[in-house]
Fold each of these.
Amino acid sequence: MKESNNIEKIKFLADRMLGKLVKWLRILGYDTSYPSLDNDLPLILTARQEGRILLTRDANLIKRRNICDFLFVKGDHWEEQLAGIIKGLKLKIDLDLKTFSRCSLCNTPTKDVDKKEVKNFVPPYVFLTQNKFVYCPSCKKYYWRGTHWQRMIQKIQKLSLNESGNNS
């Protein structure tokens, strides 16, 4: 039996209180919209129209009847929030396959680029030490798995393990 790849199916829309969480969901490859809407109704309508799960910290918003698919996000810090989403939706985090497949700034899918193409756009040390690069066609930003990468991976793995039922 083939396991479904839920990352392709799950799309999020986050309210204005969740900016840091949005960045991390995008880093993990999740299509995460972050509109500059402050009113509840446009958020709800956008989530419905685009088939997105509304992520919110607004307790009053979720009291409305039949709003849309939503997840009430608990915690004050993005780490707690992400851990809650991983647990609540039983997400499988694939750090190799989907990480950096979306721009963390604008949510646009990134494109793999050949190392030769990035020489004039990344620091010389990065060019010498890295082999895999992705590019955001909207932001014109390049991403690579630099020194920060291992720290990010360790943090995400810790969150995933803590929330996947391995409560010691």
Note: The first strand starts at residue 11 and ends at 14.
Amino acid sequence: MRVHLGSDHAGLELKDHLVGWLADQGHEVVDHGPFVYDALDDYPVFCLRAAEGVAADREVGRDSLGVVIGGSGNGEQIAANKVKGVRAALVWSEETATLAREHNDANVISVGGRMHSVDEMTRFIGVFLATPYSNEERHTRRIGMLADYERTGDLPPLPASALKPQT
């Protein structure tokens, strides 16, 4: 599998570790930077490129996932989710890594380089990469609603349970 990486200065240590670790696991790594520590760098520069790489690969049918890393992972997740076709999830545990794949078919995860040790984050990423999408109908339906909204801008219809009773 091809794995796209992007970070900012707060995620640089983990990103650099992942380049070797992922290669050792048999993955093809695409490192979108940064390549040197710069405390003033801007995460969108690198995280958008990683997410774009995943989206482009998936568009042509290539098996590809992405990992974006920052201090908390929040901004990096937001950036990745701006890319059409990307579903990025913030991961802070093995369980959230599993659920991101099983329930949301996330193709990018974001982790906080200042929130966990390198070993913990490496475990989260390993779980994410190894977990398949469940293909359950309810999850597929929900992902379809998001894809439709992304494509058309039209909100999904409200279910009967969300409508106010007439008095």
Note: The beta strands are 2-7, 28-31, 64-70, 88-90, 108-112.
Amino acid sequence: MPVLLKDFTYISDLQKHEGKKVVLQGWVQNRRDSKGIVFIVLRDGTGFIQCVILEEVIGAELFDQVKRLGLESSIRITGIVNKDEKQMGGYEIQASSVEIFTEAEEYPIGKKDHGVDFLLSRRHLWLRSKKQWAIMRIRNQIIFSIHTFFQTRGYTQMDAPIFTGNAVEGTSNLFETDFFEEPAYLSQSGQLYGEAMAMAMGKIYTFGPTFRAEKSKTRRHLSEFWMIEPEMPFYDLEMTMDVIEDFIRTVVTETLEKCKDEFAILERDTTKLETVSKPFPRILYDDAVSIIRGEKEVDGKNAISNLEEELEVVRAKINELTTDILTREESLKKGGLKKGVINFTEEKIRLQKLEVKELEEAERNIPQWLESARNFERGNDFGGSDETVITRMFDTPIMVYNWPKEVKAFYMKEEDSMPGIAKGVDVLAPEGYGEIVGGGQRETDLKKLVDAINHHGLPMEAFEWYLDLRRYGSVPHSGFGLGLERIICWVCKLPHVRESIPFPRFVGNLFP
């Protein structure tokens, strides 16, 4: 095994070394060869680079070893950095030597389309794929931008406990555990503690893991996820909505600027994200219901009619693609095609089948969305289908505010002039992604808060410390919570939230 070196170069820094000799270390992400030459795509965690290895340069014996290297074998390559705009990153390495750390066994994840269960059971390896690498890099940038946003605006980061003795939003979805022979719960939110910390420190934010014991496998749910929860004394709902809009706009804009290569790998249409520069529509709950039910139009568009028309387009596209796939498969069966044509046709069929699969999912979903929209009862909370219907009417995130108090948490402040209406806001991401932020103004009236705790059937003794915040110097205050994985899911346009976190946890998925 090669001796470790202190001095080597990361792929992300190659632009500084054009025309110079560098030493790279990493893993074989892809390999192809022909007579006397091997092309290796090397990855090192910071990026990907094509390396050209010639038999006449490294010798026949080593060349034979390199030619047989399996995917994910670990190697060191020394070579010259050459500019090549055709390659990812714009550079290529002309290798002068190769050293092998380890030759990997046959890698279980290939180019073929694997099922989700197969990939989840090998998540520790799936993370190495180019798409997953790009998602995790974007996740990292979003986290960095979140901290930068708050730290440069006078917020103090504080940490809420993970073990708690009380629920925040009811007890039905709590993970209970034993805390030295006393029942305790894994935190479902740091918000109540955030309120206490804000009364001591001013503007604060928490950033930590939270847990929900919902037995749900929908594309929006995880049992363990990360929440960002700012809390702001002397803020009302309108001021909070201003902060949320500035926050989302800033984080998304910075991520677009810093992660161009990663978005290119994901083939993400970033023009859909650039619309965050526009003002976010602020919509009363009642108006949002009217839009969902098709009773109110948005810029001349009707939610129900749009879905009906989209269903017809989807079905026509499925028929068109299915016919084309059959035609291409028949041409392959007849034979007589050149190798290049065969490879092109097979890849085209593979991509078309993936597109058909996505369209068939839409064909199943749209009738459900239509039924939910037509039958939505005013006063209910929005489900995933309802959020999908309304967000497809806008190209920016929207803010739905002033909700029925019955569907919001016990601590939400009631609108003084409208009994039964909570001063809360949900921010829904476009393209059907739905809720990414929930927040609002907190109740400051001690009696109303006590009544709310009783109304929700929560144990009063567990909230005495929280009620102290109203007894001793209470002020108007407000805050919100952003689900990190949900914003990643939207920004990356992922089909399921499980791809937005390194090791997802949800019902039935505890390993690896």
Note: The mean pLDDT is 94.
Amino acid sequence: MLDPSEAAVEEELRTAAEPLAGLIDGLPEDLARQALTHPSWVEDRTVSYERLAFLGDSVLGLAVASEVFARFAEQDSGRLTKTLNQSVSGTACTAVGLALGVPERLRASAPADTGAGIPVEVLIGAERPLPEITEALIGACYLAHGFERTASAVAAAFWPQIEFAVSTRVDFKSALQELLARRGSHVSYEVVSEAGPPHNRTFEVAAMLDGEQVGHGEGRSKKTAEQAAAEEAFERLSG
């Protein structure tokens, strides 16, 4: 059972998502079905949600980028980019997808027999389908309702994510560790180089995953450089 604060947050997210939910409810049947069809359920992957997710990702990015640009005139391009990336991350899309009732929509749309396809409950419990389906629904809304109406509804739905990104300095090392823990992976940090005198040293750190560099950062301390490397890795792996 949710405590009152969690319930209040969920209610805020649902309220913010209502305009977008209304557009989704008004989708033509064929577009709605495609946006909620996993590629393993059909022989032709082009009639699954993948193509719509590709389109929706761009619509989402432009809608939120336009909102952030207009609302935060004091932010430079670097800060705008960080706000945007955090606001449309996989984690943010998942939160909005839950507010839109994507799991319930997916259950209602799933075929009674998926054959060799992935069962709907497995999809709902997995990491990637929910944000991808959210993007697919946004892409479908763009095709059905046009950019202006869709962008306005998307900006409203993602506004709580934007506010959180602006007001909260994310501990990217913890966020990255949590993201990778769900995948059964672990990140390590390696000091690539050190430069400068002892009182003014600069550290260069690489975030490593399975022997591959997934992030890079620099800072006046190892901790600062690790945070920068974790931020780059998080944005790369959660997008």
Note: The beta strands are 188-195, 202-209, 212-219.
